Amino acid sequence: MNLQQLEYIVAVDKYRHFLKASEACFVTQATLSAMIKKLEEELNIIIFDRSKYPVQATVVGSSVIAQAKVILDEKQKIFDIVHDNTNNISGEIKLGIIPTLAPYLLPLFLTKVVKKYPEIQLTISELTTEEIKKQLKNNDLDVGILATPLNEEDLTETVLFYEEFMLYSNAGNALLKNKLVSPADIDPSDILLMNEGHCLRTQVLNICDMKKNIKGNIKLNYQSGSVETLKQMVKLNLGSTILPELATSNMSKTEQGYLRKFKAPVPVREVSLVTYKLMRKQKLMEVLKDTIQGCIPDNINKTRNKEVISL
Predict the structure, then answer these.
(1) Same domain, yes or no: 60 and 97
(2) Are 294 and 241 contained in the same domain?
(3) 279 torsion bin: left (phi>0), alpha (psi -120 to 50), beta (else)
(4) How many CB atoms lie within 10 A of CB 112?
(5) Whether residues 170 and 79 fall in one domain
(6) Whether residue 96 is found in the same domain as residue 117
(7) How far is Cα 50 from Cα 46, in angstroms, rounded to an integer?
(8) Are residues 106 and 157 in the same domain?
(9) β-strand pairing of 193-194 with 307-308
(10) Using N-to-C axis directions, what is the helix angle for 282-295 and 59-84, rounded to 10°?
(11) What is the pLDDT of residue 81?
């Protein structure tokens, strides 16, 4: 058994295809297949059920692959330890970020990272929470920036900040007469939501206790994949929505006049750096965390002192 064989079985498990796995490993399919067959013979087990399409791991094969990932991660950590003990801040960070954060958070820190750390290579993808979790576990991403807590044992969360949720409505909403609003006062049928799959949708439903009656008497059943689109729909007097604090930072004074904060306990969104439990690139993660927190506006909470809305 050798590390190369372990890399091959992890690749086949990832791509569910021997040819695609061999291309990703830069070897011929014959070489990859022969090395995996040799490992199966050594262990006296079948790792992959080749009769199925796409290829699937057997029960025992899945356990072997899981352990192979641990071993390969530990191997990489040796290189990371050496790298972290040098004074050079360099390397690649593959970052996933949810779409409801990306337009508002990335502009705050990206320029600083690029200018201050020119030898860091950033690869950024906008993905849903579920896709980020999946790619973290497959080592396709190094880190995710998303709403937490996720409550998953194999993921590590490092809180960056807490942003308040706010009601954004239009001139026809009587709630705007108040300085503060209560979730109980909000008409659920007036709320515009994100599409299914976005954690912000779940949080808004939780704030307004709408999960049971979401299919009720909704005035406009419009569901968006973009926070900016929701804001435009509100401006057209087609309903109200609930926004995280950073999403209100680019509003004009007129638009801010249609924002209302919530009464205590104030609902907030917890935003964290999330890594796989066998975290690598420790030095780069510290640089990323410190840079982001240093760029967050002073009015955004760095410590938890309000009610975090669950996902």
Answers:
(1) no
(2) yes
(3) beta
(4) 13
(5) no
(6) yes
(7) 9
(8) yes
(9) unpaired
(10) 70
(11) 76
pLDDT over 70 (residue 214): no
pTM for the whole structure: 0.77
Domain stops at, among 57, 84, 111: 84
What CATH number is associated with residue 24?
A: 1.10.10.10
21-63 pLDDT per residue, tens = 999 999 999 999 999 999 999 999 999 999 988 999 999 999 9
Residue 220, pLDDT above cutoff 60:
no
Q: Cα angle at 110 between 104 and 115, to 5 degrees?
A: 155
**Domain limit, last residue, from 59, 84, 109:** 84
Q: Which domain holds residue 23?
A: 3-84
Spatial distance between the Cα atoms of 294 and 102, rounded to a whole number of angstroms:
17
Count the domains in the chain: 2
Predicted local confidence at residue 277, as pLDDT: 80
Position 124 confidence tier, pLDDT thresholds 50, 70, 90: very high
Which of 255, 271, 267 minimizes the C-alpha distance to 102?
Answer: 271
Average pLDDT over residues 168-195: 89
Q: Which residues pair with 161 in a beta bridge?
A: 271
